[in-house]
Amino acid sequence: MSRSRPLSAAELHGFATELDALRDSTLADLGQRDADYIRAVVAAVRYTGAAGRALLWLAAVVGAFHPVVLFAWVPGVLLLALSKILENMELGHNVMHGQYDWMRDPALDGRTYEWDIAGTSDNWRKTHNYSHHTWTNVRGMDDDIGYGLLRLFPEQRWKPFYLFQPLVAVVFAILFEWGIAIQELRLGRWFAGKTKTAVLREQFRPVGRKMARQIGKDYVLFPLLAGPFFLPVLLGNLTANVLRNLWTWLIIFCGHFTADAETFPKDSVKGESRGAWYVRQLRGSSNLAGGRLLNLLSGNLSHQIEHHFFPDVPANRYAGLAVHVRAICARYGQHYNTGSLPRQFGQVVWRILRHAFPSRAPRPRLQLQETTQ
């Protein structure tokens, strides 16, 4: 049952007006401190990555003759994983939303940035920036609802395959970057005979090239720098990528699939007003309560609500915006979904386990708006 009340057309207009004004005032205030922040993130990605790779090389070459190999290998893995997490979450994801286009820095151009992950940035801009952010949690329009693999809401039709989804979810988390890489290919349509093989082959070309570059960099080039002692480097790169995948999966799932998160039918967005769009973003998103470290490591997606409201606003502003957003939601009787990481993750696990089994769709939740003013 929704914990928010429906809004009249007049209230929806007021809700949107207040949120739009908050966004506009924040964009007007952008300046040097925001530029300094993202450049500090770029430097952190560069230096932690270099330090991590250097320690892995040291562990491989020196550690081969010394029992203290783990004292270099473990820190090397953790630093490399940290670099990859920061690059994906706080740098790549946010830059590709156009959050720093105002700086006119070619290295931070959201239209051309390419990130350190198996999937292409072009496909991510389609599946995430457009499809997901436009049609957030609309069944049949937002492919991020279960990613075509998981049943997370009772409104999704149950199939026997979902009995295996606890295991599928674990494998998906470990291989998350590869799942994201092929998301735009819509392989289900090919298996169903709705997409021709020649079309799929053409769509796969840029994806395959990006996959090959990532494999070549992490599993061929850098391990070969250690010569005959390549194995610790190879395993270190693999472990760092898995740690990054697990963390990314955790943050994304906790931001969208908690107990209070809602999905919506296609007809709910017909003639959708700006205010109704804001309400849908709110009811389909979940925040994570934490401090600055969690904000940084999550790419500020600990403020998923603010991100869905203002995807083009630099994410380092979300913590400050959250105070005002929460107050606006309270004034309009809208539930602001937030909780600690363990609490939200527990709800995600419950969804994965519960909806692996048949369940009836609940009665329709409250409408996004009242039918009469």
From TrEMBL:
One of its GO terms (molecular function) is acyl-CoA 6-desaturase activity. The chain crosses the membrane at residues 55-82, 161-181, 219-240. The keyword Transmembrane applies. It is an enzyme of class 1 (oxidoreductase). Its EC number is 1.14.19.3. Signal peptide: none annotated. GO terms for biological process: lipid metabolic process. Residues 72-338 form the Fatty acid desaturase domain. Keywords: Membrane, Oxidoreductase, Transmembrane, Transmembrane helix. InterPro entries: FA_desaturase_dom, Fatty_acid_desaturase. CDD domains: Delta6-FADS-like. GO terms for cellular component: membrane. PANTHER family: ACYL-COA DELTA-9-DESATURASE, DESB (PTHR19353:SF84), FATTY ACID DESATURASE 2 (PTHR19353). This is Linoleoyl-CoA desaturase.
